[in-house]
Structures are given as structure tokens and as C-alpha cells.
Specification:
Nucleoside Triphosphate Pyrophosphohydrolase; 182 residues; alpha+beta; 7 strands; single chain; seven-stranded mixed sheet
């Protein structure tokens, strides 16, 4: 059931381009990374979601702004860097530059890194229904956890994270999942 404030009674709102990453770890069985949104978040407060968000202006410097948003959001929310030849130490360097005021795109350029768009496999596109106030045109991408990297969320982005099987997430009554995740 949606709260009344979520319903749009005027003309449809234009959906915002966004990207979500289902990060996979392991083979058999495999698990997905889920992050827990803060209670005061604008979207899905208190829910477990896959890392993702809307396209930002600095994503547009890349040829594929949606994949750029996916790479940036995965880094912001999980500390995982999908960049060619990136190592765990590069994650700390990018984070340091961002904390000093560089955009994510600028940090990659300064370190000679390029987003690994080829590591993102698009498998779904969902557009939020027209009757809602907040609408997203979301692309969902699959990616594998890069070797040697560990989850280190940016402070304030998420309150918790976990690796879990899809079946485990769906069966867990303690986890609040949003519709697209469920």
C-alpha cells in the first residue's frame, strides 16, 4: 500500500534516468549485495535495496551516462570500484579525492582509471508507473565483485549491507524490500 503522498494527481512526472547494480559474489551458490537505506532517505527509507541511483551531471562526461551512474552509485554506496585495472588501494585513492572535492569522474581521470562499462550487463529496464509523484526510468545491471575488493560504503549513504541469496532475501521477514527488489 502506497502512502497518499506518493500518488500524483496532476499530469505524469517525467521519469528520471537511473541505474541499479546487482553485484554478484561467488558461483554456486552465489549471493547478491544488498544495502540498507537510512531511515531518513528520500527513496525507500529503511529498506534493503541494490546499490543505485539517478544520473548526475558529471556522469554525462562519459559516453554511457547510465553505466557511468551505475559505476558511481556502486562506488558511493558500496565502495566497489568497477574500473579497468582497479585494485582495492585505488578505491581509497578515489574516495580521498572525492572527499577533497573532486567529482567521481574527475577522480577517475586524475588516477588514470576508466569505468569498466563492459563489466555491466544490462538485464532489465523498469519505469515507475505514471500515477506516482517520484518516477524513475531504471536500468538494472549485473556485475561480478571485482577480485581483491571489499565492501566499504561511503558514510551516510547506507546504514548496513549484506551478501544474501535471492531466495534468502525473499524469505526473510525482517528485511523490508521495495517492489523492484522483491
Amino acid at each position: 500500500m502506497l502512502p497518499p503522498a506518493a500518488i500524483n494527481e496532476g499530469p505524469p512526472v517525467t521519469p528520471r534516468p537511473s541505474a541499479t547494480v546487482l553485484l554478484i559474489r561467488g558461483d554456486d551458490p552465489w549471493e547478491l549485495l544488498m544495502v540498507h537505506r537510512p531511515g531518513g532517505a528520500d527513496f525507500a527509507p529503511g529498506a534493503y535495496v541494490f546499490p543505485g541511483g539517478t544520473v548526475h551531471e558529471d556522469d554525462q562526461v562519459f559516453d554511457d551516462e547510465l553505466r557511468a551512474a551505475a559505476v558511481r552509485e556502486l562506488f558511493e554506496e558500496a565502495g566497489i570500484l568497477l574500473a579497468d585495472s582497479a585494485r582495492d588501494a585505488d578505491c581509497a585513492k578515489v574516495r580521498n579525492l572525492v572527499e577533497k572535492g573532486s567529482s567521481f569522474a574527475e577522480a577517475l581521470v586524475k588516477l588514470g582509471l576508466a569505468p569498466a562499462f563492459d563489466e555491466l550487463i544490462m538485464f532489465a529496464r523498469w519505469i515507475t508507473p505514471a500515477q506516482l509523484r517520484r518516477r524513475f526510468d531504471a536500468r538494472f545491471y549485473l556485475a561480478r565483485l571485482p577480485a581483491g575488493q571489499t565492501v566499504r560504503p561511503q558514510e551516510g549513504e547506507v546504514t548496513d549491507w549484506l551478501w544474501i541469496s535471492p531466495k534468502g532475501a525473499l524469505a526473510n521477514p525482517e528485511m523490508t524490500l521495495v517492489y523492484a527488489t522483491r
